[in-house]
Amino acid sequence: MLRSLLRRSFKLLLWLAALSAVLVLLLRWVPPPFTALMVERKIESWTTGEPIDLQRDWRPWRELPDDLKMAVIAAEDQKFAGHWGFDIAAIRAAFSHNASGGSLRGASTLSQQVAKNLFLWSGRSWLRKGMEVWFTALIELLWPKQRILEVYLNSVEWGSGIFGAEAAARHHFGVRAPYLSSRQASLLAAVLPNPRQWSAGKPSSHVNNRAAWIRQQVRQLGGSHYLQRLEADRPSWWPAWL
User: Fold this and answer.
1) pTM (2 d.p.)
2) Is residue 51 assigned to a domain?
3) 155 near 164, Cβ under 8 Å?
């Protein structure tokens, strides 16, 4: 009986792994209609009794401003163009810092954040972390870097019920995403560590200082020239006919 149970459990895991790979591959081309984080926020509003209006409008890669792309890279993942989903040095540094008793520090790459926001729930359990590793690996394997950043910018939370660059630009600055200025882009990137408490439209001195640092980092990374490293429209291992 135990052997049969193990065999069935293994087959179930294989099926789940295959289905998750098909889903990730499909989202290589199809804009995700919603994210797991959006569902989580809606459920939170039902349990607390506080209504929330989820706002999100998809903008394709060509309509997202380079200033915002670079600001997010500078703020969240400066090694984005070169890693395969995980920044090992940052993970080791964060583990050492947390083990020493300091305030908890994360080391998530943009790819990991896409995996978490798109497919998973909030929390720090080992199960969720293991699934994050799995989905991050699939995303890096099946999507080009441009697609990862495109999905990130259209899915990340930028305030209560505010998801994606288009909704964030309208909510915080009253403009469409393509018309964000360099300063506005850096302010949006500056609030990403705590988007429901910090405001890009009404920034505190801390947010303003962080935005100035982000603009400096963008210049050091080479500005929009950095984005040329993301230009491949498919992962490098893909056959040319796909």
Assistant:
1) 0.90
2) no
3) yes
